[in-house]
Amino acid sequence: MQGPLEGPAKPPELIKFTTAQSVGDALKALAAYNILSAPVSDAATGEYVGMVDVADIMGSMLRGVYPELLEKGYLEQHKRLSISELQSVGVEFCSRKLSNLLHGGDLWFKGDTESNLLEVVETGFRVRAPRKLHVPHHHLKVHHRVAVFDILPGEQTPDGPVPEWHITDIVSQTDVVRFLAAQIDRLDAAFNLPVSQLGLVTHDVETVPGSTPTLAAFAAMHRSGLSGIGVTEAAGGPLLANLSISDLRGLTPDRFGALALPVGAFLLLQKGRGLRWEDCLTDQLPEAVREGRWSEALASIPLVTCGPEAALREAIGQLVDHKKHRRVLCGMVYIVDGEGRAIGVLTPTDVLRMVSQ
């Protein structure tokens, strides 16, 4: 398989898991439908207990299997990771149950006529939660999705009482930002302000060189509570690409070894940019990758950026891609200086936080 699944089959119904299922079961199902998360219910009671997503799975593996990677500077003093090592780790880790990997997730009643979208943004996604002053992107305590139900457990139906929560939909931050982008001309005049006046230019955006092992890059993201991290040729250099949690989309137990690849190679593999899994296993990497010429190797990967004087509404427009008449969220917009160095970031959480304010 090359890169994430192309043209995934549409799920026949909302994908759900139980606490009795394994990490491997979840990864396979998420990959099959090219999605990042799903609700989880208690295997014994049917009660909704939370959400599981690829970020939870990655964080659990780092804390439980590779806690040393969460120590800053560890890789500079110790051995590099290997594909074979991570393949073996993946087999054992994926046998674990989902019950220990969950995060909280609010439930909202579809028929609630008293709540509005702003309440979902503020309390469901928790975007009003205090954020770290030096981290403009969303912290992991923010919820990225809420589950929507239409029938309560125990409610009577023609077929008898409902045994469990009837969750019908998942609403994500990206869904709401797509909606806002479609209403961009109706937003407040404050959205005409440049991003430099909105606290988004911080000059301390985290980046990693393209040669960094992918698992170590995700460890850096987990350590700082980020959903994405910039990729450069060398430390402090111009921005070349972005690694985000969504790049784990399509990762299956038999591909855990890909996390040992340099982050630049991992991006090429996951995005289907001329690198096959078979090439990685036989160390037949492109010359630019082998020699660490990341500006050349990553040139085909789109990178969404804006300048510090760009209006917020323009940056939101860049956050949403209009290709093929669809609105597809790109994940984040990097704010760059005249030399292409990252000096700030705009994410969906930032947009929703500003809306709530």
Write up this protein.
This is CBS domain-containing protein. Keywords: CBS domain, Repeat. Residues 8-68, 298-357 form the CBS domain. It comes from Chlorella variabilis. The chain has 357 residues and is an alpha/beta fold. The chain has a single domain, classed as Roll (CBS-domain), CATH 3.10.580. 29% of the residues lie in helices and 18% in strands. It contains 13 helices and 16 strands. It has helices at residues 23-32, 54-64, 74-77, 83-93, 117-124, 173-182, 214-224, 263-270, 277-281, 287-290, 294-297, 312-319, 348-356; strands spanning 17-18, 37-41, 48-53, 107-109, 145-151, 156-157, 160-161, 166-172, 207-209, 228-232, 239-244, 305-306, 320-321, 328-329, 333-336, 342-346. The protein has a three-stranded mixed beta sheet with strand order 1-2-3. It has a three-stranded mixed beta sheet with strand order 4-5-8. The protein has a three-stranded mixed beta sheet with strand order 9-10-11. β6 and β7 form a beta hairpin. α6 (173-182) packs across α13 (348-356). The longest helix has 11 residues, at 54-64. The relative contact order is 0.16. The model is unreliable at 1-8, 130-140 and 322-328 (pLDDT under 50).
